[in-house]
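Q: Convert this sequence to structure tokens.
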Amino acid sequence: MKIVHMERQIDTGGVSSTPEWLKAKQDVIDAIGTVQWPENSDSFTLYPERKANGVVPIKKGCINYLKSKYWMLEYQLKEIDTGHIDAAFHSDIGLFGLEWETGNVSSSHRAINKIALALYKEVIIGGIHIVPSKAMCKYLTDRIGNFPELQPYFPLWRSFKVSITKGVFDMIVVEQDAVSYNVPPIPKGKDGNAKKNTGKIKKS
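A:
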């Protein structure tokens, strides 16, 4: 899997220049690079039919890599009572959090608000939200949260920095390395849009 864009939403208090943040962000960048489909293929190739691929298995390689780097998975943000984040890392200067989007665009807004609130409440000191690109989301479960649909809200999220003393928040946009009818579709879940939108599968 490749990164096609990174966009900073919040940067205040000098966190973005610290070795701790740079290390945490590099962990995430490296983890994204480990995401493969099919598994053990050394690449990330999508079956090129609209809505044909599931989303939850995509983040598996990333999360497993972060675990190997001592990130904690499904970490509960008890201080703000908004549930867990996908992964978190304790550093000498504070907690960093990661959310990988596997839900619809409403889920993306909840994830971003969770990160922003955690920064505001000083529960975390840095956050990253990973979303698919426009070129990728069309092959995934219908209505998956994606970069183009979130982009109009950037001015709002950037305005939050006036209320945050110290913190950094980046959005990372990811995309497939290739598409091919020679790979199987990524399995889907059994709920919601994943169940309703199975896509039409061509036979090779």
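The two ends are 24 Å apart (CA to CA).
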